[in-house]
Specification:
The chain is built from eleven helices and no strands. By secondary structure, it is an all-alpha fold.
């Protein structure tokens, strides 16, 4: 990879990891339009580390509060809103752990095509519009019980299909369950922490099992750029989402999906 490719792909990954617009659809574009090759395992690990670091640092106070409250409850303390949120995140992660492991090879064999990404970008964009326009959007995270958390977790499994967007499908689920936009996005971003961590670990194990040479300058550059772009994306998205809603992202997804179809058909 050239330095220019590293910069572009790392920024794309950092931004699209958290916006509801599908990172796989955007990472497909450079290969179609410019003929770039796949970035490889080492780069994938680097950008995952950058994105994970960004979301952990952004929510560091929330994570520390939840960890303390959850630990106190485990040793006999009272349940609090923070300890309950920690439980809901654990429960929401379980479907991805179980079904993600079982379905990983199937998705890699049948779903990783440009046409699949184009169609899912459009379909799940339309579902996001439906959720945003018709859902109550009246409740905060305090209303999130274990059943709703588990439902969001099952929705997250759909993100295994390229083009779906992990953040997009979990925000869609949150909106359909009555959460307001900010709360749906916040839960989605918190839920991304164990998900990105798990994906990064699996990629790291795959990297260790190969003889692929590692370009450390590429690793450092990719990590830093994905961190900066992901952190800025989280901050701006949460700051603006109540005002702008999901419609701009829906329109963008529909246009992107149609554009991919035109290129591929």
């Amino acid at each position: 990879m050239t330095l220019f490719e590293v910069v572009i792909l790392a920024i794309i990954q950092g931004i699209t990891e958290f916006l509801p617009i599908s990172s796989s659809a955007h990472l497909l574009l450079p290969s179609i339009l410019l003929g770039w090759k796949e970035q490889g395992l080492a780069f994938d690990v680097a950008v995952h580390i950058g994105s994970l670091t960004a979301v952990v640092i952004y929510f560091r106070h929330d994570l520390w509060g939840m960890t303390q409250a959850w630990t106190r409850q485990l040793v006999g303390g009272k349940a609090t809103a923070e300890s309950q949120l920690a439980w809901w995140l654990i429960i929401a992660t379980l479907p991805a752990v179980v079904l993600g492991f079982l379905g990983k090879s199937l998705v890699e064999e049948f779903a990783r095509s440009g046409l699949v990404i184009a169609f899912t970008t459009i379909v799940f964009g339309a579902l996001l519009w439906l959720a945003d326009s018709r859902a109550k959007q009246a409740e905060g995270l305090k209303s999130l019980g274990w059943k709703k958390a588990l439902t969001i977790g099952f929705f997250q499994v759909l993100a295994m299909i390229p083009g779906t967007s992990r953040s997009g499908i979990t925000i869609t689920a949150g909106l359909l369950l009555g959460l307001d936009r900010y709360s749906a996005a916040r839960f989605s971003f918190l839920l991304s922490i164990p998900t990105i961590l798990g994906a990064g670990v699996l990629l790291g194990l795959d990297l260790l099992s190969t003889s692929q040479a590692v370009d450390w300058s590429m690793i450092v550059s990719g990590t830093l750029l994905s961190f900066v772009s992901a952190y800025a994306c989280i901050y701006l998205f949460l700051s603006w989402i109540e005002r702008i809603g999901m419609l701009p992202f829906v329109i963008y997804r529909l246009l992107l999906g149609v554009f991919l179809l035109v290129l591929l058909l």
